[in-house]
Amino acid sequence: MRLYLLALNPTDSVTEGFLPAAARLGLDVTLLTDSPDAHRAAHAAPAAPPEAAGCEILPCDVRDFREVVALIGRHRAPDAVFTNSDHLQTQAALAAGYFGLPAKDWRATLRTKNKAELRRCLAAAGLDRVRALELAPGQDPAVLDPPFPCVVKPREGVASEDVALVADAAGLAARCAEIRTRRPHDALVVEEFLDGTLHTLETLGDGTRRHVLGGFRTRLSPPPHFVEEALEFVPELPAPVLDQVLARLDALGVGLGACHTEFVLRPDGSTSLIEVNYRAIGDQCDLMLARLLGIPYFEHVLRVHLGQPLPAELGARTGMFGQNRAVCADRAGTLTAAPPAQEHRGGGVHLVYRPVRAVGEYHEHHRTNRDYLGLVWAVGTDRAAVDGAVGDFLAANRWEIAP
Question: How many CB atoms lie within 10 A of CB 90?
Fold first, then answer.
């Protein structure tokens, strides 16, 4: 059976998660990407699993579903078309649907990617009425009347990039002008600031049955930016909170495959969605989640895209704790020292560290997830031991940046 996997830049989710899972399922993988050399380099890296080396890689303009369909049509017959990229969900859904394969509803993938459309859909359903305004490319933000403080962000952005809190009209104008120096053709969303604790919900569905896998309590950098610095596993949410979030996913049409939902939990128990990423959580958290739950998570995701139903019970283990921490650059410069990729087991804890930036690379300071130097996570049955292992690793290693 042949799996077509659409990707942009290499990610750990694909290289360490989905490609080994595809090999374990006996699938032949053809990876379609606009960055073939980058994927070849990632598959040859020391930390890459051996299964990645056997992946066929073909160059393709994967942002254009017509090119995806054309390439698949002249290559080999597909059994599944899949992507874990935020940017390619609609393209994968349309291509899979063209070939009569299991596919996400392309309208749901568009709603979840387009943050303005997400707000409109939820408001029309009478759910989660967050005041949000859309700003077209080149449009003057002075025409808006947003509630201050408010958050401005790209309508179809990801990973805290160009997301900022602004206090007044002057700040909004300045921030919009700054974002447009990098994204002159992108629409923006300006919406009310949602105060509360940031959480995620991780779900997995086959179009009929949906499993709730738990989620993460997220710590952010101080405002005005929103960099995710630490995530702590939360196995269960209160039933009223869970019901609110799942009702909104139903309204959006989310049903097939993995979904990573970010929401704010207020002290009174009410919730509001921040965004819905219709794919697996990234930044090593999906790998950590599979280890926490003790289930073949990546295989389950691929199976539903092959048309196979999920079991009634996943058999996930309980009583586990997990923490994921990002090492962030605090300034621009060249990374001159950092630990290599590594794993350790001991004292009932499994700890993993993966570099994000290579030693010798120069980067500007973005104040986004692009500032990650590395990611460390640990899981175990004792919270203190897990937290201690992560803290000890961070204290024992050095990340040095030279101007």
Answer: 23
**Which residues are within 8 A (CB) of 294 and not within 5 positions of it... i.e. 6 or more apart?**
315, 316, 317, 320
How is the chain split into domains, by residue range?
2-103, 131-192, 197-402
What pTM, to 2 d.p., does this model score? Answer: 0.95
CA-wise closest residue to 126 among 247, 36, 278, 299: 247
The CATH number of the domain covering residues in 2-103? 3.40.50.20
CATH 3.30.1490.20 fits 131-192, yes or no: yes
Tell me the two tokens of residue 92: 């994968």
CB 210 within 8 A of CB 247: no
User: What's the mean pLDDT in 112-129?
Assistant: 95
Confidence of residue 380 (pLDDT cuts 50, 70, 90): very high
Contacts for 357 with CB less than 8 Å, ≥ 6 apart: 329, 335, 338, 363, 372, 373, 374
Angle between helix 239-252 and 115-124 (nearest 10): 110
Q: Which of 367, 25, 33 is nearest to 179 (CA)?
A: 367
Q: What would the DSSP string read from start to end of 199-220?
A: EEEEEEEESS-EEEEEEEEEEE
Provide the pLDDT confidence category of residue 47 given band limits of 50, 70 and 90: confident
**CB neighbours (10 Å) of residue 397?**
16
Rounded to an integer, the average pLDDT of 228-249 is: 97
- State how beta strands 197-206 and 188-192 pair: unpaired
Other beta carbons less than 10 A from residue 193's beta carbon: 16
**What pLDDT, on the 0 to 100 scale, is given for residue 386?**
97
